[in-house]
Amino acid sequence: GFRSGYPGNQGGINMVDSADMDPRDEFQDRQENVDLFAWKSSDMPDIDESVITHKLSISPMIKPVSQRKRNVGEERRAAITEEVAKLKEAGFIEEIKYPSWLANVVMVKKANGKWRMCVDFTYLNKACSKDPYPLPNIDRLIDGASGYKMLSFMDAYSGATYQRLMDRVFSEQIGKNLEVYIEDMVIKTTEKGEHDQDLADILKSVRKYNMRLNPAKCSFGVQAGKFLGFILTHRGIEANPEKCQVIINMRSPSSVKEVQQLTGRIAALSRFLSCSVEGVVGVPPIMLGNVLYLYLAVLDRAMSLVLVQMIEGKEKPIYFVSRTLRGAEAKYQRIERLSLAVVVTARKLRQYFQSHKVVVKTDFPIKNVLRKPDLAGRMVAWSVELSEFDITFSPRGAIMSQILAYFVLEMSTPPGMEKEQPWTLTVDGASNIKGSGAGVVLEGPDGVMIEQSLRFAFKASNNQAEYEALMARMKLAKEMEVKDLRAKSDSQLVTNQVSGEFQAKDPQLIKYLEGVQRLAKCFNSFELVYVPREQNARAEGILEEVHEGACGNHIGERAFAGKILRTDEPLKSVLSPWPFFMWCVDIVGPFPIGTKQARWIILAVDYFTKWVEAEPVSSISAEQVKIFYWKKIICRFGLPKYIVSDNGTQFASEKVIKFCRGKGIQNTFVSVEHPQANGQAESANKVILRALKRKLESKGEAYVAHLSPILWSYHTTPQCSTGEAPYTMVYGSNAMIPVEINPPSWRRETSIVEESSEALRENLDMIEELREKAHFREFAVKQRVARRYNSRVIRRWFREGDLVLKRAMGKDKGGKFASNWEGPFRINEAFEGGAYRLETLDRAILPRTWNITNLKFYYS
């Protein structure tokens, strides 16, 4: 090739030698169109306003902004002066005296060493309405321009609304023999003769609309060239070696800015991510054939995919996609994460999925899940979104390309996901004439904290006590599968001995040191650091509990801890003799406002079958409770004997009590501020609330729609106390759940209508035995729990007439300096189970009962 030199040409035009045509003839053809090149700014004519016009749509509500002048260096100032002079000479700009809008210029050095003058239109852009006109997809343009033998690259002088202008001027050529991105153009043909004709037609359109080309960036009739940062050849798409070399020459990043620079440069080569620099040029993604293969890999926090095609019997990568899972996505089931990976790839590589058949290689039943008729929520949306593409699923088989997917997954996983946050262990040991002990605090990620006081049954020095505390908590951390542990101690001797700075000479301390070193090998990383005593306050406080107060007699840490946790009354188990005999009711909420202004959930649990009924309501009035009793309990399961609830006004109102009394239902109220007495409802509350949190994340207002599926899940899950699912306890058979439909389960595949009907009748005959078996199992479980619970009880009770103080609750409780107890009150009546009715000293009876845990003797 050679560069033609025209008068005034500062850059020249690249042309290619051709065996079929004399270069002088080629030169003559270019001379005919020399007027289409703008050698200087004044050579650029105006484009007809009927073709395209750019106007600023500034909102009149925005106040004009005049930026302060920025100081620039001498080199930039000279470049600015030169560029402004060119624009003034060409008549593009003119000086004004009193501007309302004023913006600074920003000089950017180009790859050839020259300066490009830009303008900081930050405030002006905010004042103008956004132009929604779309830009072409770069990946589609690159793929569309690759694999052609003859190429011509042209660069028009860019300006406002240029993509809209290009789409109008070259509407018939774009996609056929021309690809355009703003002002960059590439003409593509497979034969020389066709290329000359296409070039002539395109230059004719350029002349027709009074456009001009930049001679410094035009190349005609070449076999390879740069387009949008990639090398286009007849072989396909190749990475730009210059960009690869820039990454190779970079030093290891040592700051956030350098990491961002590295990430941005790698992003430009994302489609060649797994290849080496030597292999980038040799393995271009040539789009041959109609079938593409997709390999995918997912972890708990990241996903990666590799799109490949078969070339000469070998799989060649085309594109790599990787992404971290955000928010609720990290809690999806594995099959959902795999489905999401396919959806993400289809969105990013839409042009490939639309023009090719895609085979997803996986051993998971994604196809069966996405085609299930009873899909709901996001899975339905994904299934519909993927239905427009020709996607098939097949077993993975060979793992050649799957290894690439795993590699991208490992490389794209953020470091914080690969390495867990270290746990912090704080210890403090002490010894005196009465004995020795230690205070220990183990802190983990997400606010996990374990505090413990240790009491040693043997004589130990201060240093031995420090070692004992350290080893005890290291063993606990090992049992909790902690990987990285950072321990703190206020003993300089122990810290320096473990780090190796001090030598242990005492035989006992040598054994302790060996034990610590042996335990340290169980962790990926272990570090013991010294902290001053004033920074070790929490462990100091726990240690103080060992030696002061009730623990001062050194009865042992287990006995001391057990003494603190002992209750005042034996455990009273609640048993129901038959289904729907006794219900417990509670209220969950408030929630964010959902469908029909619902903010609360009224929840009822049957003591026998553990069946749960729930209803979202907008308010928790007595009328709503009455409707719930009638609609959800009586009309569905008949009249119960008892309904247990707390002392809320909505449950204890005269309207509700009168309604229940009219139906022969007895209301039972638990003691004030003692929710353990309504434990069945509280337990169901926790399960359902936890399920809602996991399902919804931050979108709490959607809880109404998800309540029924969660209740169904609860009903079909066996309970620990009965060993049976509530659905089985009520209906006598196991429910058919969606996972048994597709692929079908064994009982669905082998079921025969006649045999199924007979089996259902047998289940009805055996339901009483099943319920009786579950009843005895529940009784045994509660008996074991009560036996263990009661072994720690220290009984105390009050008699009628005793004076007591009751704990201040709710509105009765004053400010920070108010007493936590109020009274005295007199015991009016004692009930079974540690409940008491109180009266004032004036014989006025207090409403509701009070549990013994909220009462204590009054001493005058």
Structural commentary:
It holds the Pfam family RVT_1. It comes from Trifolium pratense. GO terms for molecular function: nucleic acid binding; RNA-directed DNA polymerase activity; RNA-DNA hybrid ribonuclease activity. This is Integrase catalytic domain-containing protein. Residues 575-734 form the Integrase catalytic domain. By secondary structure, the chain is an alpha+beta fold. The protein folds into 6 domains: 2-49 and 131-238, 2-Layer Sandwich (Alpha-Beta Plaits), CATH 3.30.70; 74-127, no CATH class; 269-418, Nucleotidyltransferase, domain 5 (2-Layer Sandwich); 425-565, 2-Layer Sandwich (Nucleotidyltransferase, domain 5), CATH 3.30.420.10; 582-758, Ribonuclease H-like superfamily/Ribonuclease H (Nucleotidyltransferase, domain 5, 2-Layer Sandwich), CATH 3.30.420.10; 803-857, Roll (SH3 type barrels). The protein is built from 28 helices and 31 strands. The strands form 7 sheets. Strands 1-2-8-5-7-6 form a 6-stranded mixed sheet, with helices on both faces. Strand 9 (225-227) and strand 10 form a beta hairpin. The chain is elongated.
Describe the protein's topology.
Blueprint: E1 2-4, E2 13-15, H1 23-32, H2 74-90, E3 105-109, E4 115-119, H3 122-127, H4 138-145, E5 150-155, H5 162-169, E6 178-181, E7 184-189, H6 192-208, E8 219-222, E9 225-227, E10 230-233, E11 236-238, H7 241-249, H8 256-267, H9 277-282, E12 291-298, E13 302-311, E14 314-324, H10 334-348, H11 350-355, E15 357-361, H12 366-370, H13 378-386, E16 391-394, H14 400-412, H15 415-418, E17 423-432, E18 435-443, E19 449-456, H16 462-479, E20 484-489, H17 492-499, H18 507-520, E21 525-530, H19 537-547, H20 557-565, E22 582-588, E23 600-606, E24 612-617, H21 622-637, E25 642-645, H22 649-652, H23 654-662, E26 666-669, H24 679-696, H25 703-715, H26 726-731, H27 746-749, H28 753-790, E27 803-807, E28 821-830, E29 835-839, E30 850-851, E31 855-857
Parallel strand pairs: 2-8, 12-15, 15-16, 17-20, 20-21, 22-25, 25-26
Antiparallel strand pairs: 1-2, 3-4, 5-7, 5-8, 6-7, 9-10, 10-11, 12-13, 13-14, 17-18, 18-19, 22-23, 23-24, 27-28, 27-31, 28-29, 29-30
Helix pairs in contact: 10-13, 16-18, 24-25
